[in-house]
Design a protein that fits this description.
alpha/beta; 107 residues; 5 helices; single chain; two-stranded parallel sheet
Length: 107
């Protein structure tokens, strides 16, 4: 599933005309070294200048950035600007089954 997710990110970045992608990953999390390598291997198949930065606290790095892609509400509330890319990616999957819960009331 990780490979599929990386490919979906790459394909959608290319389709939107992006030329560069930088991934900031929390270094203290297990397997980040392997994830970094996998991202670089898969992204090499796409026309994107790609970097993967392993940092002690990715959140604090992203707080100071614009054009951030994240689904983490804390990051989205504090960063300079962001793109709702998760919606773009899900929308690009023809077999995705989407449900609108906007009208559901809490009881």
């Amino acid at each position: 599933k990780t490979d599929t997710a990386i490919r979906l990110i790459a394909e959608n970045l290319v389709r939107k005309g992006f030329k560069k992608a930088v991934f900031w990953i929390d270094k203290p999390v297990s397997n980040t070294g392997r994830l970094k390598q996998r991202i670089l291997e898969i992204m090499a198949d796409y026309p994107l200048d790609t970097a993967v930065e392993l940092v002690d606290n990715a959140d604090t790095v992203l707080f100071e950035k614009d054009c951030v892609i994240s689904s983490d509400a804390i990051i989205l509330d504090k960063c300079i600007s962001y793109i709702n890319f998760a919606a773009e990616i899900v929308g690009s999957i023809e077999s995705a089954q989407l449900y609108d819960f906007s009208e559901v009331k809490n009881s």
